[in-house]
Amino acid sequence: MGKLKSFVVTFDNNKDVYQAGEIVSGKLIADVTEGIKARELGDRDGENPTLPAGYYEFPFRHQLGTGLPSSFEGSRVGYVRYSVKGIIDRPWKLDLTTYYIITVLDMLDLNQEPRATMPSGSQNSKTLCCLCCTSGPIELQAQTDRGGYCPGERIVVKGSVENNSNTRITKTTAKIVQMVTSTGFPPTDGSVPSDTLSSTVEGPGCSARLSENIELVLPIPALPPSGLRYCNVIDIKYVVLVTAHFQGPHRNLEVELPIIIGSVPLKTLYSGHPNPAYAPATAPPLLPPPTYVEAEAGVDIVDNIVNRDKYTPSQLYYAPKYMYYDWSQHPQQ
Question: Where, by residue number, does the polypeptide cross the bilayer (predicted)?
């Protein structure tokens, strides 16, 4: 880095995840090995146009506004990204800039979503054609145990498949799919499905002329909340995709079960009170304490930001972190 041994952004208490309204505070650290001509460093005006050699710490403090969308990294349609930048303003030369991306979370409370307590169900049917013959109908029905979940919880999918054809259904599967719609420029043509967001869970198949009940359990990874509230160019929806797979060249039979991903779990789910009006004001002890877990989708800072914009990285890789409820030490009912 030449005259700079280091130039980095650090945060108080090593905190890099914030909620709307919180205060972001830390230091911009510059370790200068040789004087640098500089009109300004960050928000600090200097009367001396040269920043002498030495070790400098410039504290910063900023309160986030309210109504901020959650951080999001989309592989196809864009991102919502918050960063802290430190700048050494050099006369007649390129500025020296360091860059650190933080996570900002919008807390979507499932207790404020009426559909969160209601199961999500759907059914679909089809017939198979082989030459001039048409099979009897094949029906797939599935339903989730409720409509709203938080990362770390699990989705229980129950249903049935009725196979009135002569073709065997080899297996049934379920997975979580994120549907992203962009209204920016250029806009996407409808919703764009991302990669599968959970491991695909397999269930039983069904022989010809028989029926079979299915029950599949899906763990939920770290995900941004549904809707990406307060963002007017990106919308996020989630579905559980349940599929019956056929033997041979036939197209599979699918049903989509819309769900809501939130940040604050349903209180009544763990309190034992069937009526939300009598739910306790705080979450019961059965609920594990939330942690922050990185999402799978991230960005390589060097390849995607540093090399493009000539920044000095304060981090090499970034992935947003989301509220996560770890049930590994707390058996889930």
Answer: none
